[in-house]
């Protein structure tokens, strides 16, 4: 409930036109409807993001400089399979923009991505953002062709049991581990 | 309230009918910020890794809001027996 209030307050601060009816009930409804619209916009935009590229990774830091061991593990696994060309989104990016007072969530802009991601800083506050989108409590998160694959544990196990090679094949990506195996035969 | 390893173990055992649960506090000073769990349950049979992990996540949804990092391994009793034998 606290997060709802906090997010609502954030939406209100963002300059949304708010109709304030006389009854207290009505007021609550108006602000939460506004909040739900903003959340829905972010969820829709995340839907577009994961469809846009074959391989999408939401992580802490960047592939060149991962900021967390689990995110690093995902980067290393993809690297081992020769997957270098993927879209990565840093959930820690631009934290100073998180509290930007003029973020309008009607149309998704780069500022809105920060709004979507900055919620990941606070575990309690995951009503919107990529955690809610994937219904997954942790970062990193990996998508193949718009489908949620899993986090670090799942990728690691897919790597170990050979599923990764198969899943990449479905994406039209030939794992470099497979190539290496062929050459050694 | 800090989440204890015992609490996680009890909840997984009860709600997922787990036959074996290992819970390890992996935070550097054992401050209950990160956990690693191994869950063995027949409820995982016929389910993909993602479905299994989602079961565990759902079971611990409240707790995961407080936990910073969470690693999990999900095995069926059969897989668990195989792993022990190795």
UniProtKB/TrEMBL annotation, chain A:
Residues 55-100 form the Glutaredoxin domain. Gene3D superfamilies: Glutaredoxin. Keywords: 2Fe-2S, Iron, Iron-sulfur, Metal-binding, Redox-active center. The keyword Metal-binding applies. SUPFAM superfamilies: Thioredoxin-like (SSF52833). Pfam families: Glutaredoxin. Signal peptide: none annotated. One of its GO terms (molecular function) is 2 iron, 2 sulfur cluster binding. InterPro entries: Glutaredoxin (IPR002109), GRX_PICOT-like (IPR033658), Monothiol_GRX-rel (IPR004480), Thioredoxin-like_sf (IPR036249). It comes from the Eukaryota. CDD domains: GRX_PICOT_like. One of its GO terms (cellular component) is mitochondrion. PANTHER family: GLUTAREDOXIN FAMILY MEMBER, GLUTAREDOXIN-RELATED PROTEIN 5, MITOCHONDRIAL. This is Glutaredoxin domain-containing protein. It comes from Pagothenia borchgrevinki.
From TrEMBL, chain B:
InterPro entries: BOL2, BolA, BolA-like_sf. It holds the Pfam family BolA. Belongs to the BolA/IbaG family. This is BolA-like protein 2.
